[in-house]
Every structure is written in C-alpha cells, then in structure tokens.
Amino acid sequence: MIHVLIIDSLTTIKKSKHAMNILIIESDIFQSKKLKSILLEINMCEIIIVNNAVLAIKELQQNHFDLIFCNIDITDIDGITILFKFIHNKELQNVVLISSGNENISQLTYDMCNQLNYKHVSMLYKPFDITSLERILCRITKENNELHLNEIDKPLSSIDIIRAFSENWIFLVYQPQFDFRSGDLLAVEALARIRHPIYGDIEPKVFIPIIEDMGLMSHLFHLVLDKATSALGTFGFNVKLSINITKNILQEEICDLILNICRKNNFANSDLTLELTEEQAYRRTPTLLANLARLELNNIKLSIDDFGTGYASLDQLINLPVAEIKIDKKFISGICHDYKRQQMTKLSLFLAQSLGINCVAEGVEDKETWEYLRELGIDVCQGYYTGKPLPIHELKELYNLFIETKKNQPLICKNTTILIFIDNSLSMSALERLLSKELTDYSIITASNTDSINYTLRDYPINYIISDSLSIDKLKDINWESKLNDNNVSLLLLVEKDDNHSIKTINNIIPVIKSGTLQEDVKKIIYNIKKSKISLNLEYDSLSKQEQAVTKLLIAGFTNKYIARELDLNEKTISTYKKRVLNKLNVKSTVELYQVLGNN
C-alpha cells in the first residue's frame, strides 16, 4: 500500500494554514481518519477524504490541493495511474511515498516520480507517526528553501562564470565528518559556492555544469585547493581535508601543482584526500594512473565518492590506491526501513572492512539513520544531522571545541588570525613585521582595500582586525560594524587620545591609544589581545564542569536535542543548564554567548 504526499510550498502552507487544501484518497476509512488526525495535530487543515479514484479525479479537476495522499490499491483506478496521469502535470512540487507493502512496487513508484521530475521524492513507511511525518516535512522545507534560493530567473552565463573567477565570487564552505564511535571531528569536505552580486549565494548544481562545459574544472580545482589549504593552514593544528577532483583533471600533470600548493600554504600532504567518483575511477588511462601513483607516493589519499552508483568493478577498485569509500546518499536515505538499501550498505561496509579502508556514509539527516549506521559499524558520518556546511570562522570554533574536549586544553585555541588594514601601506607593512616577530604562533594577514577585507573575512577565520582612525572611514563602505558582529571579530583601533571617548560605546571595538612610536603601539596591541583572552578564561572557568560541557556544545551550534544525546541527559535538563550559563555569563542568547566565548 502506497500513499503520496504532494506539497506546493510548505512555508506558505504553515503561514497560511486556512488556505491549505488537503486531499486524502483512501478506501480504508480507519487509515484515512488516522492520517487526518495526525495532520490536524500538526496544524494542517481543510482536509477532504474521498474513497475511490473517480471522486479523486473529480476533485483534482475542480480544485487545487496543496497536499495529496493517495492509496495505490484503489479498486477502480490504481494510485500509480493517478500519479502518472492526473497529478504530475499539476503545479505541485514534492512527493512523499508512504509504503507498508511491496517494496518493489514502492521503489518503482519512487523511481517513476523521480522520472516525472517532481522536485522532491522521498519515502515514509508505515506504521507512520507524527514524528516521522514532521521529519519528512522539515526535509521538504529545507529543500524548498534551497531551491528558492537557487532558482534563478536568468541562468548563469559564461560571462558570469568568468567574472566569478576574476572577481573572486567563489568561496568555500566546509562540511564536517565525524567518527561514529568516538564522536571525534575527523575531517572536512570543502564545497564551492558562488556569491553573485544579484542572485546571492549559488549552489554547485547550478554552476558546475556550466564550468564543465567551459572546460574550467581544472581552474576550479586549483582555486578550491588553494583557498582551502590556505584557510585551514591558519588554524595552528592539522585539519584533514577532502576535495573533489575529476578524471579530466587527473589527465593533466597535476601532481606537482598539488604538492606546490600544499607546500606554499604549509598544509601537510598526509592531511589531503582527493575524492573521485566511482564512474570516473572506472575510466582509467596511463596518465591518470601515473598521477594516482605519484599522489600515493606523496601521502595524498584517494576516496571513491558516490560509491555504488557508478560502473567500476571490484577488480578495478581494489587495484587503485583507495583509502576510503563514500556510500552515496541514495542508499543512506530511507535505509532504516528499506531492506535492499540495508543490504547494499552492508556489502559496501564489508568490502571496506575487508580491504582495511574507511567507510563514510553521506547524507545522514536524522537520528534514526545515524543510530542505525552507528550500530552497523560505519566508520564516518557526513550529513546535516551532525553538521551542515559551515563558513570558515564557524568551522574553526567547532574544531576548537573538539580539540579542547579531547586534550583538556583551554577553551581558546592557541592559534589566532589577525587582519591588518592601515591606509598607509608603509605603516601597515612595518606593523605586520613587528607583530610577526612578537606573535610567532599567530597568523597575520594584510588587506590593501575594502574588497580585500570582504574576501578575507569570508575566506579566513579572522579573530581580530587592526586598523587606525585615519583608515576607519574607508571601512564604512563595507558596513564594518555589521561585519564585526556577523563574523564575531574584535576591532583593535589605534586612536589619538582625544578620539577615545567617541568609540568606547561601540560593541566589539577595543580602542588602543597611540603612544608616539610604533614599537610601543605594538606592545599595547599585544597587551589588549592577551588581556581579552585572560578575561575570557576567567568567565569560562567560573562555570561548573557540566555547564562548561553544555557551553562548548552550544557555542558549536548544536541543538538542545543533540546536546542531550551527547551528554546523556534529557532536553529539559539541557534547557535548565542553558539558562544558568546565560545568567552566569550575563548574556541574553546563544548568539551573544557565541560572541562572548566563540571568537577567540
């Protein structure tokens, strides 16, 4: 038995529930009433129930429905025919199949809906409940929001792509990967985005096909590798990094370029993994094999991405220097209730274990799936349940948290990144040299203009900006006060004594009164940085051990539910600890908590 849920716009539905129309096509009166009661419980309304296909088709012809449930076993016309002929041509976006019967029919129906180009297709299994249904609706909401952000009235042109490269529109986000057993943060995958001046942030599925058609994938790979290794190199500790590569790039003499970029950015070769899809691994050439051999010789690892979706034979795969396989999210989605997906995943895991390589599960989006895969013995988890793709400054705070937890070090990471912007280039260069001599564990970057500041804040985990009162006017062009708050950055502002009173009330600004010599100014800058860190430690040390544990996870951006599971407490207890922490540190929200503790 299969039901279908189709949603036009979940966000609109929730905001305008009185305009919401639902059609349930179900011959089983008990099932239809149960479904209706669950929908009412989650604030859905305007529900119509029909008991046969004829009435259903009549309703579909006369009315618009935001949600439709359809039983496949309607006697006169089956639900598959309704899906195929009477629904898919309507302005409906999302399909959720609810199955309690034949898995082959469920899968075929699922594939048919995908072929009909519904924007969302997923499975919901019987016996269903409010939690399962809400999880599906949340996933649809997230995907609809992403689609809304990425649906561009005018598609990107080749001119846009050229400008993206030449004008630095391309930036990176990083999705964390966690050890299923220990919970340790093991690595990150770097993912490219384009920040278009009109359309905003654009996902890879929009721009990658255009870049491929233009033959610029090699340029994108070089850019991503350089940006990622440069940014992660400022962390002050090793960060394992995965980057996608294609077979066409591996047809070039790429090895020396990769090694040179890693060397330039002080990034260890052994911390780099290149991800190649299974289909592309199948198409081997002498040049590709030579590159893979040289990369292996230099301790750079190879991962087979989207495992199980390509055409490679086991014989071909085991002859490659593979360090890990990544099971495609197609097999992970719905695995808890799908026997075939379970068996495919078990086979992949058995292969990985037999070859002594890591097994990564992609697309883990809920607790049930996480728990199933953990029990199964998968090594590494990657997905929205444990961590969405993060900008660089949020990733650094997440790493700080896990390093401190693992090694029992202070909350503040030893490495700090400073951005200097002084309008006088000679003064800025002199200040950089003096600070570099004194702050040997710090990363120091200079910016020559406001565009450079914007890109540096986007691409690097900046803790402090150093500027002076003569340069501050130029910062107004980039709305600098907002950027300080958004990126949790402190501004050390060199000012004359008479100017000090005018900036004391501005958040995130530390005034440094000039002394007359650059050497004395540097001493004051260093004093203020270290002073802020000492104050931070005192505030944090005033918390109990349990409060500190909750604080760390709150700073890292985890929900109360996730924190409760990690600390083996209930959600009410976590809420109590959260209120207590906010009160002790004299902050009003977790956002302010992050600003107090998360940016150092």
Short note summarizing the structure:
The chain is an alpha/beta fold and 600 residues long.
Describe the structure.
This protein has 600 residues and is α/β, with parallel strands linked by helices. The chain folds into 4 domains: 148 residues, 3-Layer(aba) Sandwich (Rossmann fold); 239 residues, TIM Barrel, CATH 3.20.20.450; 112 residues, Response regulator (Rossmann fold, 3-Layer(aba) Sandwich), CATH 3.40.50.2300; 58 residues, Orthogonal Bundle (Arc Repressor Mutant, subunit A), CATH 1.10.10.10. It is built from 26 helices and 20 strands. The strands form 4 sheets. An 8-stranded mixed β-barrel has the order 7-8-10-11-12-13-14-15, surrounded by 6 helices. The chain has a 5-stranded parallel sheet with strand order 17-16-18-19-20, covered by helices on one side. Helix 5 links the parallel strand 5 and strand 6. Helix 17 packs antiparallel against helix 23, helix 18 packs across helix 22 and helix 24 packs across helix 25. The longest helix has 24 residues. The chain is globular and about 90 Å long. The N and C termini lie far apart (55 Å). The relative contact order is 0.06. The N terminus is likely disordered.
